[in-house]
Amino acid sequence: MSNPTEIKPAEAPSPSGLRLKARFPLLALIAERLLLSVLLLFAVSVLIFGGVEALPGDFATTYLGQSATPQAVANIRSELGLDRPLVTRYVSWLGGALQGDFGTSWASRNSVSEQVGKRLGNSLFLAGFAAIIAVPLAVGLGMLSVHFRNRMPDKIINVLSLAAISLPEFFIGYLLILYFAVDFGIATFPATVYDGMGLAERIQTIALPTATLVLVVLAHMMRMTRAAILSVMSSAYMETAELKGLSAARAIVKHAAPNALAPIINVVALNLAYLVVGVVVVEVVFVYPGMGQYMVDAVTVRDMPVVQACGLIFAAVYILLNMVADILAIVANPRLRHPR
Amino acid sequence: MPDLSSGLLSVRNLKIEATSYPPGEAPKRITIVDGVSFDLEKGKVLGLIGESGAGKSTIGLSALAYGRGGAEITGGEVNLNGTNILSLDRGGIRKVRGARVCYVAQSAAAAFNPAHKLGDQVIEASVKHGLMTKDEARKRALYLFGVLGLPNPETFGNRFPHQVSGGQLQRAMTAMALCSNPELIVFDEPTTALDVTTQIDVLAAIKHAIEATHTAALYITHDLAVVAQISDDIMVLRYGKTIEYGPVQQIIEAPTQEYTRALVNVRQAIREEAPDQSQALLKVENVSAQYSNGFKVLHDVSLHLCKGQTLAIVGESGSGKSTLARVITGLLPPSDGRITFEGKPLTPALKNRSRDELRRIQLIYQMADTAMNPRQTVRDIIGRPLTFYDGLRGAAKTARVKELLEQIEMGTGFVNRYPAELSGGQKQRVAIARALAARPELILCDEPTSALDPLVAEGILKLLARLQEEQQLSYVFITHDIAIVRAIADSVAVMHRGRLVRFGPKSQALSPPFDDYTDLLLKSVPEMKLGWLEQVLTTRRMESAGN
C-alpha cells in the first residue's frame, strides 16, 4: 500500500477564476508567466533608471572637465533636461522606450536606438553563432558521457568542461588570444567586425570570442543533458520498454527522448540567456563592436541614455529567454497539457 | 507435479547472482537465487511467494531473460516451449519479450511512460513485433479493456497515465501484457500498491482475463491469501531457495514446512479485547480539520481510547486516518471540536504544547527509514529524547539506551550501529525504542508494519503487545489491514472520506449488522482459504441482481 499520510486536495477552492484555471491549466500557467515577465521588466526598468540616477559622477562635469564652471554645468543640465523632476524624466524615458525611442546619446548626439540597433545585431550574431556550436556540442557530449558512464571518456569530458566553467571568461579569452593569435598566429585579434564584411570573413574574425563563449556555457548544458538522460534511462518505463522487446533505438527515440527533452530544452534556453548577457565581458576583451562594448564605453563617460537603453535591452532578452524556458517546460509536461 | 516434457515453461537449477558494493568494503558476490526449478503448463498459474529478498521477482524476470539492477543469470536453464531462452542472442531474446512472455509491474504508475497515451502503449509491443496491424491491435485492446472491466473501453486508450486511477492503471498494464496474446505473463505484485477494496476488483479482473485467454502466468506476491485465490501451484521461497512447492490446496491446507506453516498462520489473535472500555484516556470530540487552503479533510469525528488499550483506525488511503493522527499530535490543529487527554484539554497546536504534553504522546511511522537520521547511531537516535525530556547525558544515557534496546529484544550490541546497518524490522524496533524513551502514555502507530514482511510484522506486533502489557501503554494504531485489527485491537474506528463511519469495541464494530462501507471493506480482505474470491464475487453478483 502506498503511503497514505496525506490526503491531496483535489483543487483548492478559490472564489474567482477557478473554473477557467481548472479547465485550461496550461493556458492559465502560460498567461501567468507572460504577465509576470511584463511586471518583472517594468520593475527592472525602475531599478535601472533609479540605479543610474543614483550613480556618483555627473555627465556635465565629466564632459566639461577643467572648464566646469557652475554656470556651464547648469547650462548643460538644462539642455539635457536634467533639471526636470525625476519622475517626469522616468515617465518620458519609459514612454519613449516603449515606442523604441531611447533618446539621444549625450556624448555623440546620435540617436541611441539607431546605434543600439546596429550593435545589438552584432551581439546577437556573436551569441547566436556561439549557440549554434555550443548546443549540439553540449548535447552530443552529454550523450557521449552517458554512453561511457563512469568510464574514462565520461570522466575526461567532465573534468575538462568543469575546468572551462571554473575559469572566468576574460581569463579564457586572454589565454586563447595568447596561444592562438600571438603564439600560433592562426586566429585574428582584435575581433573587430565592420559593415560590408563578408560572412566568411566575419566568422573567421569572431572565432576566438565564439570559442570563449562556447567554453563558458558548455559545461552546464553538458552536465544537465547527462543528468536528464541518466534519470530517464533509470526509470521504470524504460524497463517496460526493454521488457516489451523494443529495439534500443525505438526505446530511446520514442520513450526516453520525450521525457528527457524538457529538462534539456530548459537548460539550453537558460544558457542562451546567459550567452546574450555574458557577451559584455567577452566583447570588451576582444574589442568586438557589440552592445557590451557600447555599454562599457558609455559608462566611462556617464552617457546615461545609452547605459539605460543597454541595461533595459539586456534585461528584456534575459527575461524573454527565461520565460521561453519556463513555458517550454510547462508545455512539455503531459500532466499540464492533458489535464484530468 | 507436471511432467517435464509437456510444460510450457520449465526452469531448471536457476542460479542468479549480483555484485554488491558495501560502502568501505571490497565488492561482494551475492547469490540471489540458488538452484530453483519448477514447471508451468499452458493455461496454469504458479504463485511465487516469499518475503522481500526471497528472489521471487528475480525469478519472474528470468522468464524474460532479464536481470534487474545488475543481477546476472549465471546458471541453469529457462526453457520456453523447449527452447532455453538464456542461450538466445539479443535479437532472439527481444522476440520473446513482449510477444511470447509479458510482464506486469508492481507500480503501473511508474511503468507507464507519462508522455504517451495508454492505448498507444498497450498495443505497442504487438504492433512492433509484427503480430498484428495497428487496427487489429486496437480492436484487441478494446476487447481487453472490456474484459478487465475498465470504464468506457472505447475512449480509455485515449487517456494519459496520470488521468486514470491506480487500480485502472494496474488493469491497463494487464491489458498491455495480454494484448500480444503471450504464452506467459509474469505478474509482479500487481495488487500490492492498491487499497483492499480496489485490490479485489483488480484481482478478479486478472483472474477472469487469464481464464478467458488461456494464458499461463507466474504470480509473484508476498501475500499468501492473495495467491491462494489465483494459483494452481504455489512455490514458497526464502533467501533464494525453494522451501516448499506443490498444489495450492496442499500448501494452504497441509503445509509440510515450518516456514510455510508460519506464513499460513500469520496474525492469529495476539490480544483479547478488554472488557471495560469506559475510562477514556484520550477523547476526541466532534473534531473537524482542514488544510490551510480550506480543503476539509476531517468531518466531525468523535471517538475515545482507554488506558492500556489499543484503538485501531482503519480505512483506505485518503480516508483521513493519518490526518486524525496529525490532529492528535497537534501537527494539524483542529478547526473545530476538542481533544482531551486524561480529562484535561490538550493544547491544539504542537508548538504551544508543554514539554510534558509532548512527552506523553509519541509517534511511530510507517517508514522507519525516513524517520531516522541516517548519520546518527542508534545511541544518538534513542538518546535524543532521553536528553530532551529527562536531561540524561553520558554514561547514564548510554545505560538507559541499552536498557531500552533490551526491551525491544535487540541486544546492547546495536548501540553504535547506523540505521543503514539495520534490517527493516530492526529499524522499526529502534523507532519503537525511541518512542519508549520518552516514557509516553500514548503511542500513535501510523502503519508501522505495512512496509514489513508478514513474519517480521508479526514480531513487531507481538513486541508492541508485550510492551503494552508491561507498561500499560495505550496505542492508536492506524492501518489498512483488517487482519491486524482483528489481532490486536480493543476498539475499532472505520474511516471513509474524512468521516467516521463506525466506532466501538472490536467485537461490536466487526460484527453485523454492518453499514455499507464497512461491509465492503471487510468482504474485500483476502482470506487464507481456497475459493474465497469466487465466493465474494458470487455474493456480489447475487446482491446486485437482487437490487
Keywords:
heterodimer, A: 340 residues, mainly alpha, MetI-like fold, B: 547 residues, alpha/beta, Rossmann fold, 2 domains, six-stranded mixed β-sheet, 21 helices, 20 strands, 24% strand, globular
SS elements, strand count of chain A: 0
Number of helices, where a helix is a run of at least 4 consecutive DSSP H or I residues of chain A: 15
Strand content of chain B: 15-25%
Tally of discrete structural domains of chain B: 2
Radius of gyration of chain A: 25 Å
Oligomer: heterodimer
Strand content of chain A: under 5%
Helix content of chain A: over 70%
GO molecular function (chain B): ATP binding; ATP hydrolysis activity
Family (chain B): Belongs to the ABC transporter superfamily.
Membrane topology (chain B): Peripheral membrane protein
Subcellular location (chain B): Cell inner membrane
Description:
The complex is a heterodimer of chains A (340) and B (547). Chain A is built from 15 helices and no strands. With 340 residues, chain A is an all-alpha fold. Mean pLDDT of chain A is 82; it is low at 1-17. With 547 residues, chain B is α/β, with parallel strands linked by helices. Chain B has 2 domains: 41-66 and 88-264, Rossmann fold (3-Layer(aba) Sandwich), CATH 3.40.50.300; 280-511, P-loop containing nucleotide triphosphate hydrolases (Rossmann fold, 3-Layer(aba) Sandwich). In chain B, 38% of the residues lie in helices and 24% in strands. Chain B contains 21 helices and 20 strands. Chain B has a 6-stranded mixed beta sheet, with helices on both faces. In chain B, strands 16-17-18-13-19-20 form a 6-stranded mixed beta sheet, sandwiched between helices. Chain B has a 4-stranded antiparallel beta sheet with strand order 2-1-4-5, covered by helices on one side. In chain B, strand 19 (491-496) and strand 20 form a beta hairpin. In chain B, helix 5 crosses helix 7 (166-179) and helix 14 (378-390) packs parallel to helix 16 (424-437). The chains are: A mainly alpha (340), B alpha/beta (547).
